Amino acid sequence: MRLGIFARTFAGSDPGAVLGAARAAGFACVQYNMACSGLAAMPDALTAAECAAVVQASRVNGMAISAVSGTYNMIHPDPAVRATGLRRLEVLIAHAAAMGTSVVTLCTGTRDAADQWRHHPDNRSPEAWRDLLAEMGKAAVIAEKYGTRLGIEPELANVVDSAVTARRLMVDLQSPSLGIVLDPANLFEVELLARQREILSQAVDLLADCIVMAHAKDRDATGGFATAGQGVVDFPHFLGQLKAAGFAGDLVAHGLTASDAPGVATFLTRTLAAL
Asked: Which top CATH class is 2-274?
């Protein structure tokens, strides 16, 4: 597995400086965010020069672009908000190859109109699932057009909140453009170690054929998010399950500060080496 990090971990709006900081911290690739180019994370347009700057920074620093972040609220209760998000997602999909990647990452959203990371009870409604299938179906058609893969990340607060609902989405849509980004810290909040391992093992088993990227975020003992290696997530178990399943993609750290980054790189490198 190649070790990466969210580019937005590092301050700055120059791709060269951001990718240089990621390399200096001990990483080999990044999940890029257009904010690192001084743009909106979901811009209305991209120029050839803006894409070329990302590629140039990648070459100069020897840092691969694992993916570009394209998250918006796919089941926002206002259809106009969803339409704006999809239009901006198409901008990223259309330019992903020009930035050196074939993956655009996204999450599935929530009925909460104010915060796309906050759970809403209507997320489990048939109407929410219907809207997700419609929205993700449109996104899949766009991705197929450009030969891009969409990396969908299950999140406890979103409509796709588990490995089971992620598999359901894959089955319902049957699109070759859809894949999964699997983060162990998104699959539970507070669990005993045995149950945590069971959840992680089941997730890898259920989704092994469609995992395009893994994330490395942690949980503390009270269920809050933590820096990888400083919480309760059993990373040797999770990464061991991924390896046993044949996953050889990128492992991307996030949920950390720039000052944490070198320590996280060391922790994950040693954990992977021990496998």
From this structure: alpha beta
For 102-155, what is each residue's pLDDT tens digit? 999 999 999 999 999 999 999 999 999 999 999 999 999 999 999 999 999 999
- Element holding 35 (H helix, E strand): none
| Total-model pTM | 0.96
Which residue carries 């104010």 as its tokens? Answer: 114
Distance (Å, rounded) from C-alpha 158 to C-alpha 118? Answer: 8
As given in the structure block, the two tokens for residue 222 are 């009270």
Amino acid, single-letter form, for residue 262: P
Residue 237's alpha-carbon distances to 189, 232, 249, in angstroms, are 17, 12, 17
Extents of the domains making up the chain:
2-274
In the chain, the amino acid numbered 22 is: A
CA nearest to 153, candidates 143, 140, 163, 139: 163
Closest CA to 4 of 20, 26, 24, 21: 26
Rounded Cα–Cα distance for residues 201 and 221 (Å): 20
β-bridge pairing 149-152 and 103-106: parallel
Q: Rounded to a whole number, what is the distance in angstroms from the first to the last CA of the chain?
A: 11
Whole-number Å distance between alpha carbons of 43 and 87: 10
Nearest of 109, 176, 181 to residue 149 by alpha carbon: 176
Task: Please give the distance of CA 244 from its chain centroid, rounded to a whole number.
Answer: 21
